[in-house]
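Bug #77: duplicate submission created two jobs. Keeping one. Sequence:
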Amino acid sequence: MKRYCLTLDLKNDPELIARYIEYHQQVWPEVIRSIRDSGILQMEIFHIHTRLFMIMEVDASFTFEKKRKMDADNPKVQEWETLMDQYQQRLPFAQTDEKWVLMEKIFEL
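Kept job's structure:
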C-alpha cells in the first residue's frame, strides 16, 4: 500500500471555511464511490486556519492520471469540484490545472 500527502489552501473567509467543512461532513455518495473506484483505500483531510492536508492510502491500481481521467468523465464529480472551487485557494506554486499539491516526504521515524 502506498501513501500520498497533499496540501491545498482555503480562501481566508471564516464563513466559506465553515461551509467547506460542512460539505465534508456529508460528501456526496457519488464522490465517495468515485474515490473508492479510483483505488483510494483511505483518505483523511486535516484542517488548520486556511491550510488543508490530505493523506491518501491507495492500492496498486491507483495512479493520479487514472484518477484525473475518471474525475473528468464523471459529471457528478465535476459538479462537486466546481462547488468546492469557490472555497479553495490554489497555492502560489501550484500548476495551472492543479488544486491539491503533492508533498514530498522528508523524514520518517
